[in-house]
Amino acid sequence: MTSIKTPSTERPTPPDSTPAAALHSGTSDLRALVLNNLRQSGIYVALVVIVGLFAILTDGVLLSPGNITNIVLQYSYILVLAIGMVILIIGGHIDLSVGSVVALTGAVSAVLVIQQGYPWWVGVLAALAVGVAVGAWHGFWVAYAGIPAFIVTLAGMLLFRGLTLRVLDNISLSPFPSEYQQVAAGFLNGLLGGNGFDAFTLLIGAVAVAGYAVSGFRTRVARIRYQQPVESFPLFVARVVVVGAVIMYFAWQLAHARGLPIVLIILAVLVLVYGLLTRRTVFGRQVYAIGGNLSAAALSGVKVRTVNFWMFVNMGFLAAVAGVIYSSRSNGAQPAAGNMFELDAIAAAFIGGAAVTGGVGTVVGAMVGGLIMAVMSNGMQLMGIDQSTQSVVKGLVLLVAVAFDVYNKRRAGTAR
User: Quick one: where's region Disordered (predicted)?
Assistant: First the structure.
């Protein structure tokens, strides 16, 4: 016998559409939006708070035109390193050797330019070539030999520090010619005139504000198109206005000091290029995919070895750029150059929102994290705080940033 199924007379329970349920849903969406953006938004808030705090503690000296210029000049090479480091951390790796590579590339440039009399640009090109070769060395052992990046770069830290000593023969070399010094100590001033200030610097600041606003608006439109949560439009406008005001204040101070530092132009170009590389290119998406889920990335057709190799080549290149900037800034090459630079770059990346487990982070976030470290260091120096206390404060800030990331991940896992 065949059984005949009678249609059920029960109706499916409709979703709760009471006002209380709607309110709860709206609150949940708002809470999700806040949690999703807390990490990134909190960085900017922290930067503003820290700048304001040290501005008060230093009686305004921190925000003086001359000191702002000094911050740019003194910490530019750390920000360059942070760009490469955050890309590695997003991909699930780390590089402990960048300080030694900074020293080695600066040493190679110094030997060619100072000892052997080659033109300044030959030293720059040679330093960049050495950095790329170092990155390829690391990339081979990590990507194709399968040795963890921590071990490879730890060995590289010792290896390239030793090579620096050999290249310099355990002595310091100085000075560089004036053209080489302009890389880190030169300024663009007076290109558009100005009565007591540099109009060109203000123009560049206005262009930066316009670029930030357009980029933010396009990102907002894209998120809405894909039905992702976004902040309210008034809040978006307020954020753009605040950031724009900060940028223009920064440009105004530079314009009333010595103008636009050449090294700041180099840094801005790198931030723009690598920001586009990580967000708009296939390579950038593959880096995020590898760091987020290595197995899934491999199954999706990502050439994991190739991407890992080029991540380290890129880190070597940026370490060489930082080496040129640092040697130009210090007007020479020293065997101990670049000591502990890797820790500052790693701290900048983590404070800027990179996740310990990989797959999360941005170039802009790393820049903000680096600026937080720079402002704290500069502010404490202006206050006359000793180096040991400065190290304690930096360590605590890094620990809090990583703990905050771990807390967010646990909370997100519990919410599921």
Answer: 1-21
Residue pair 85/92 in contact (Cβ under 8 Å)? The answer is no
| Block mean pLDDT (10 aa), the chain, length 416 | 45 46 46 53 78 89 85 90 95 94 96 94 96 97 95 96 94 91 84 70 88 86 84 83 85 83 91 91 94 91 94 96 94 90 91 86 89 90 88 84 72 59
Output the pLDDT for position 37: 55
Question: How many Cα atoms are found within 13 Å in the side-chain-facing hemisphere of 149?
Answer: 22
Q: Is 173 exposed, middle or buried (0-12, 13-18, 19+ CB in 10 A)?
A: buried
CATH number for position 267: 1.10.3470
In which domain, by residue range, is 404 found? 38-189+258-415
Confidence (pLDDT) at 141: 97
Please state the pTM of the whole predicted model. Answer: 0.84
- Four-CA torsion 99, 279, 277, 243, nearest 10 degrees: -70
Q: How far apart are CA 2 and CA 62, in angstroms?
A: 87
Alpha-carbon dihedral of residues 324, 329, 333, 338, nearest 10 degrees? -80
User: In what helix (H) or strand (E) does residue 188 lie, and over which residues does it extend?
Assistant: strand 187-188
Task: Round to whole Å and give the CA distance between 229 and 207.
Answer: 28
Task: Please give the pLDDT value at position 316.
Answer: 96
CB atoms within 10 A of CB 371: 23
3-state secondary structure of 58: coil
- Alpha-carbon gap, residue 177 to 35, rounded angstroms: 52
